[in-house]
């Protein structure tokens, strides 16, 4: 279990795409902003833009022919429809159309006229479609028709000019031949010779051919084409309507939101997926806690009725129990990356209760000597007063005089060694008593769980890794950075330990964080710090048996946890709690 889950590394491409898409959906705010921007832009275009009208006419293009009804005659002979499209949008056509429109009272320049024109060619046809967009239906109709007729006029003029030029050329060739024929005719009348007659006959043949070509050119049908579909005044404005624009705006906005989410994802230092967390930390995922525990709710979920949270803790405990690395040492260190250590505290306490429920002899050590809070969170805080370990009778100090027994209703009990504020934390954590306590994990059926401060905030966890070795990291995937996980893996590996796995918990919401701050302020007002600088947590041992009775009988009547004071050797003393269990 100490190696990354290979299945996550061997995912196929569709699985990776689904994972990346889920990561993009994390940024719902950016997606919503993109959609809103798209809808607003579409609404502005639909409601703020000026209505335009489009009128369309179709022109069938044909080439000049002498007999359109002859067999094999083709109307597309010599027509390049691409060149004709360019001619239709040329300034020459625009100039002719402007002249015709001016006569009807529509004064417009060529550039403005051609700006609203669009000429298209349906595939595999000799048809040009003239579409004109104007401010009014009448304007669109008149200008579309004027442009189509101007195109036909330009094409007719060009065809006729070509025929005239060719006829002039043939006539220029015919004139010298005619003159030479006349001279040969005069010579033939005066003399008799076969050479003159033959030359004159050849000239007559050439003249006949040229005359025939001129006659054919004059007989050509120069009709440039036909206006198959006359433009009509449109009844509705052109362009997409409001529903279509809103739909397009929503799609474009969603695409913009996905782009922004992708950019945010690329530059986001936080862990983007479970697969990335496993790869960065080099350890498998033990479980994911559901969002059930309220900000001011009880710390222990096990022993308070069935819930998803309790079952998830039990599943993690069973998974650790069958891990070869854990069963060899039976010691784990629970910590968080940085910041708030409350979820790591809850995880350590619930894992201790889960192992106790499995019949193990569990010892929970709170190694957070800078801000200890586990005893108070479990209900070990009595009346405000001087803590029992402050006296340090018979030279005993932390952790020797800090053992208490915690009952888990219906599940068993585990031993708690509560933390205490200490001036020299590194010396206390590396002391011989701590080593002897951690060595208790070597006894058959025993489990030692150590709760340490965040590993990146203090070096306390690093000081314990060489004697605990197995580490469980409790973190919120949305708050921890990939670089933090890689650094944690390097620190734990350099200290001689290994990461058994990761336990994910949901982050606190805004209201939950506010409730937690208020609860912390209330605890701070009700528990003033003592003059010697230590915390104000009490113990059932402060004032002897009477004090223990006060803790048992004056506490919260809804509290289901009880504490039993043990002597330094771990043997149970007199039970002063009405709900304490016997180990």
UniProtKB/TrEMBL annotation:
Highest taxon of the lineage: Bacteria
Residue spans of biased composition, Basic residues class: 513-526
Chain ranges passing through the membrane: 27-47
Record key words, sorted: Membrane, Transmembrane, Transmembrane helix
InterPro entries per the UniProt record, alphabetical: Bact_polysacc_biosynth/exp, P-loop_NTPase
Region (Disordered): 511-583
Compositionally biased spans, kind Basic and acidic residues: 544-553
Entry annotated with the keyword Transmembrane: yes
PANTHER family in the cross-refs: FERRIC ENTEROBACTIN TRANSPORT PROTEIN FEPE (PTHR32309:SF13), TYROSINE-PROTEIN KINASE (PTHR32309)
Name recorded for this polypeptide: Lipopolysaccharide biosynthesis protein
Organism: Streptomyces poriferorum
